[in-house]
Amino acid sequence: MKQNAIIVGAGVAGLACAIRLQKQGYDVTIFEAADTPGGKIKSYQWQDFRFDTGPSLLTLPHLVDEIFELCGKNPRDYFQFIQLPLVTKYFYSDGKIVDSYSDPIKFANEAHQKLQVNPNIVTSFLNTQKKTYQLLAPIFLENPIHIFSRLLRIKNIPALIKISNPVLLFSMNFVNSYIFKNNYLVRIFNRYGTYNGSNPYKMPSLFNIISHLEHNQGAYLPSQGMFAIVDALHKIAIEIGVKFNFNSYVDSILVANNTAYGVQSNGQKHQANVVVSNMDINFSYKKLLSSQKAPKIHLNTPQSSSALIFHWAIQTTTPILDVHNILFADNYKEEFGYLFDKKLLYFDPTIYLYISSKCVSNDAPAGSENWFVMINVPHITDQNLQIDIIEARTCIIAKINRFLKINIEANIIHENITTPQSLQNTTHSYLGSLYGGSSNTIISAFLRHPNYSAIKKMYFCGGTVHPGGGIPLCLLSAKITSNLIEEKYNF
Ligand SMILES: Cc1cc2nc3c(=O)[nH]c(=O)nc-3n(C[C@H](O)[C@H](O)[C@H](O)COP(=O)(O)OP(=O)(O)OC[C@H]3O[C@@H](n4cnc5c(N)ncnc54)[C@H](O)[C@@H]3O)c2cc1C
Q: What is the Cα–Cα distance from 410 to 145, expressed in whole angstroms?
């Protein structure tokens, strides 16, 4: 008889894990609290304007393709994407504008022309990150690193030697400042710290490998916006027989004799041979496994940052902007001090502007644009339970007007706001954090909860467990989890 698996949550990792387990021979059912799949990857529609509400940048799209190939399908029949020639347009308060490209040589030339940085320094830095990534990713991102007997294999020795290099212990900012000696370029490279919600003035320089993904591998946008990834995964999941229960919040995971055997949702018990939680790891223990011993070492790590997002329907076009744009703070270090130490809103926040309609013409009517305006804010704490949205909005509008020399407020015809509280409420993300625990220490990778648990037949996948947040890592976590289940319960 077929074994069955229950997955709690239809985030990108839950969907990917469901597809993988179904292909492994399980009968898979997903219980999802919301009425649609996707979790943090959602779409919001107002009249003819469509907005991505969470992620806006896709890297390593082959990890999405891999899932369709596993099902014997051509990924291009399910979703298309384009590579962005210009990745991000960076704006500074003195009027300087720097364009960043996926082509390392083109980017190095831009850094030379606009910032007078020796282009060889940029290409050599990116080349180093490429080599480091290629050495470390197979061991630390594609494997369950908490199983030490696997980690300490002879073939992993070069990677283990690499991560014990003391330079990687220095902060990202320290290394970047030493190498580039240019405050404009240092801010560009420090910004990769925010890609997992961390503080570049504290997180180890090891995380400079994130820049390799964008500059050497490329930045991508699905042709129908980010939600197309979820749509495509949902479609293939249904085709291969995964069952979905929407509007089905799971209240608890059923455990007896230290073995998970099902879930309870909407007052009913559902039995399973294996249970995978795609819910935030903190809430998984606090809410679904409250009678079980929680592994404090994995749950007490400081959380990553959250976000305050404005979706604006704009009744004009802004030729000066591209798809991804950053309006930098002058004092980036002070901004991170507010985010991670004071845990307060910063008065001159770095602003991220994402306008998918620059590429996806259906996302806004002609002559208009769909703006996603985001600033990083601290995760929810007792001091900042109520963010002063009006104050933040005033700062943001004044800064946009000052940097771009426009009057944006007069062109906003519709607004929708996402706060840390709304993120926590809609996606069940602990303290509204975007990426689970932060990566501010060298041991943070080991402090993330593993994909397995001390409870038998209980597994975890998603951005809050190993190997971390962001779409590519979530897809890898689904792969690691399904592989672990296959190895343990192969039938
Ligand atoms: C504003 C923002 C910007 C981002 N930008 C990027 C980016 O540009 N690029 C990138 O790669 N990543 C980005 N990320 C991160 C990325 O979105 C996440 O890492 C990823 O989507 C998390 O997926 P997940 O599988 O962990 O689950 P989640 O998306 O967290 O979904 C979990 C799902 O489980 C459901 N659920 C939870 N508890 C229960 C329960 N008890 N019962 C039933 N269902 C439950 C929830 O409703 C939800 O649908 C961003 C995130 C945010 C919020």
A: 52
